[in-house]
Amino acid sequence: NKQQHTNKGNNLQVSRDHQVTLRYPSPPSWAPSEGGVPFGSLHGRSPSSLGSALRPPSHKVPPDPRLLFRRRQILVLSPSFRRFLLRRSALRALGPRRPRLPDALGQVLCSLGGWLSLYISFCRLNKHRSYEWNCRLVTFTHGVLSIGLSAYIGFVDGPWPFTHPGSPNTPLQVHVLCLTLGYFIFDLGWCVYFQSEGALMLAHHTLSILGIIMALVLGESGTEVNAVLFGSEITNPLLQMRWFLRETGHYHSFTGDVVDFLFVALFTGVRIGVGARLLFCEMVSPKPKGFVKVGGVAMYAVSWCFMFSIWRFAWRKSIKKYHAWRSRRREERQLKRNGHLKTR
């Protein structure tokens, strides 16, 4: 057992334990060593660590060192390309890029021009109607469009505003915010010029404009601003329908009662109920900025001011409907007693 046999043709050596160790041929002249480590060592590992005849490696046939060297040469990247990849990975780690302010400003100006053009078109088509009629048509159009877009962002595209407040803005959120900002600038200018709204509505429009600008400048918190937009605009089409019904003389009907009921129910449930939950998530989250939270509190306070006025209106209308129903029932009973009411 202590004798050694040499097979020069196969370059194999048998040890005294009868273990055959695989040796690689000497590296070629075109394969230099890397970092002082010989080529055949494969990153500093000796060939014996790859296996032996009694303890073979995981693969039966050891790889050809020439092929390994060629693959490593292919994977060698230039320094400039490696710097490009490192820079790209660092940008991805930082999250989505903030949109450039000139791009957002251009979108806002295009939105403002679009809403103004739509208003001028309505004025030319409805020459027999008032300016407020045409402005409310624009408001109705914006309400329907913003409800659909904000609902898609919140429920489909994401992120969910109750779990991810203060997250970076997505490109779709930026587009919707720019579209809405152009409308609010148009509507605020119209209300100031014609002096058709009170101080509460002007404060609502001003806070909305400041909130959207803040989200665009910061590049974050567009998630909760979009949710506030959805809650604020979900009752807007019903509000405009009430005004149109009143102008056309169809408000005191069953359709008017249904519109009023849906308006009060949606405002109370979504803007006050769901809005309170959203404000709570905004306040307890550490991500949003402090002034963003202050803006959320201000918007919720404005919603409560509107809520008091709506409840007062709903109470008065309910009392009026109740008294009208009682007087009608009293007249029917009197007619029935006197025999003037025929029943079958």
TrEMBL record:
Keywords: Membrane, Transmembrane, Transmembrane helix. It is found in: Membrane. Residues 1-14 have a biased composition (Polar residues). The chain crosses the membrane at residues 137-154, 174-193, 200-219, 261-280, 292-314. InterPro entries: TLC-dom, TLCD5. PROSITE patterns: TLC (PS50922). It comes from the Eukaryota. Residues 1-65 are annotated as: Disordered. It is a multi-pass membrane protein. Residues 128-328 form the TLC domain. This is TLC domain containing 5. It comes from Felis catus. The lineage of its organism: Eukaryota, Metazoa, Chordata, Craniata, Vertebrata.
